[in-house]
Amino acid sequence: MDEVLQKVEDNREEMKETLMDLIRIPAIGPDNDGEGEKEKADFLMKILDDFGFDSIERYDAEDERVQSGIRPNIVATKEGKVDRSLAIVTHMDIVPEGDLDEWDTDPFDPVFKDGKIYGRGSEDNGQELVASIYAVKALSEAEVKPHYTIKVMMVSDEETGSEYGVKHILDEGVVDEDDLVIAPDHSEEKGKKIEIVEKSGLWTKIEVHGKQGHAAMPGQTVNANRIIARYQNLVDEELRHEFDDEDDLFSPPVSTFEPTKRLANVPNVNSVPGKETQFFDCRVLPSISLSKVKKVFRGAADEFEDETKAEIDIEYVRESEAPEGTPEDSEVIKDLKSAIEDITFFEPEVAGIGGGTVAKYFREKDIPTAVWCSNEVLAHQPNEYAVLDYIVRDCKVFAKMAVKE
Q1: Where are the domains of the chain?
Q2: How far is it, in rounded angstroms, from Cα 180 to Cα 367?
Q3: Global pTM exceeds 0.85
Q4: Can the peptide bond before residue 125 be classed as cis, meaning omega within 30 degrees of 0?
Q5: With CB atoms counted within 10 Å of each terminal CB, which end of the chain scores lower, N or C?
Q6: Which residue in 37, 60, 63, 93 is the catalytic one?
Q7: What mean pLDDT, rounded, does the chain reach?
Q8: Strands (E), 104-179
Q9: Residues 210 and 221 sit within 8 Å (Cβ to Cβ)
Q10: Closest by alpha carbon to 99, among 387, 355, 386, 380?
Q11: Is the pLDDT of residue 405 over 80?
């Protein structure tokens, strides 16, 4: 194992250069007006031949919205001593760069400075993609056969629903129920916590239909702006009062109900808007049924309809009931904890999160899955960067876990 870890260190500079090459290839999905992940997948297919994998397979999903017609998924396999796999699941796709004025550097022209690699997709999820493939490269160079068969899975579409990525891979039967799965796409306290459970998610769209008119004659209007403002305050208060349970596994330990996106209404100041659209992002503790949350949204809407003569439509644009979490005493958690302790010399804790990861799709199929990596939690932010020391450290953890010494 010492030789394997030394090989990881020897590849430090190469890992940095590979991540910088990946950053130069934007892989933005069609939901965000991009052309998908094919160019990045083609680049990876070229370099993976030299990493010592026993097989490299593609599981491409058809998607006519992109010019290539496909959303690629790569499964690179290194055979182990036992007929059981350790699957490390990373994603190739990234989010758009956002406001360029907020960036100090070109998001797709990576810069290495003070041990950090700046660029869009550096941390999310290029850092862990690089760490996972170089774990296999180090094992191959040290001529060490891992205990588990390693499946490094590089998928598409993580940022916009996983229909063409993890869900497609699972439909193809690539992962078995007794496999160990790590999704290195979330970090707390720079790798000191392992995520084992997620909150349920509910994106709610509230649409108020009033009556537009001149602001000088409000009696002839039904002001949708005023109604949505009152509705937002009321339903926000009711939700937080009704669902005030706490679970210290999560941070924050409560369900959250955040009013977020608001669509534009009238373009001029002197018109009363007849239509308003407001969204809520709800992250709900697994112990609370989403049907009960929906009941509060609808009940408040009925109350305002009766009072104001407005019509209020409610649509749940995204809904995700949290699957049962990964047991703390499951093999994947115990093995991962052991590897982290051996490499980092700290003992990680388990935690729950409010955000969603691809782990939920594995857990829905009763495949125990751990979510863990080391990073600064800069995903989707301007001036995103990856820390080279974290790439090297996580690479060692993956290699250690696969060998199971």
Answers
A1: 2-198+324-403, 200-320
A2: 8
A3: yes
A4: yes
A5: C
A6: 93
A7: 96
A8: 111-113, 116-118, 149-155
A9: yes
A10: 380
A11: no
C-alpha to C-alpha distance for 44 and 284, rounded to whole angstroms: 38
Which of 154, 257, 275 is CA-nearest to residue 203?
257
| Closest to 205 in 3D by CA, of 184, 175, 183, 235 | 235
pLDDT in tens, 49-100: 999 999 999 999 999 999 999 999 999 999 999 999 999 999 999 999 999 9
Q: Which CATH number fits domain 2-198+324-403: 3.40.630.10, 3.40.190.10, 3.30.428.10, 3.40.50.1260?
A: 3.40.630.10
Reported as a single tens digit per residue, the pLDDT across 196-222 is 999 999 999 999 999 999 999 999 999
Specify the CATH number of the domain 200-320.
3.30.70.360
β-strand 193-198 against 349-353: which pairing, if any?
A: parallel
Tokens of 176: 């078995």
pLDDT, position 355: 83
- Let me know if 245 is a catalytic residue: no
| Active-site position among 63, 97, 124, 158 | 158
Distance separating alpha carbons of residues 110 and 36, to the nearest angstrom? 20
Q: Which residue has the tokens 């995903």?
A: 379
Is residue 198 annotated as a catalytic residue, yes or no?
Answer: no
Measured CA to CA, the distance from residue 171 to residue 174 in angstroms comes to 8
The set of residues, in sequence order, having a beta carbon less than 8 Å from that of 345 and lying 6+ positions away, is none
Rounded Cα distance between 217 and 107, Å, is 50
Decide: 225 and 266 in contact? Cβ < 8 Å.
no
Task: Record the tokens describing residue 44, joined without a space.
Answer: 């990876």
| Cα dihedral 91→96→99→102 (10° resolution) | 20
Would you say how long the chain is, in residues? 405
Q: Please calculate the CA angle 40-42-44 and round it to the nearest 5 degrees.
A: 70
H-type alpha helices, 33-126: 38-48
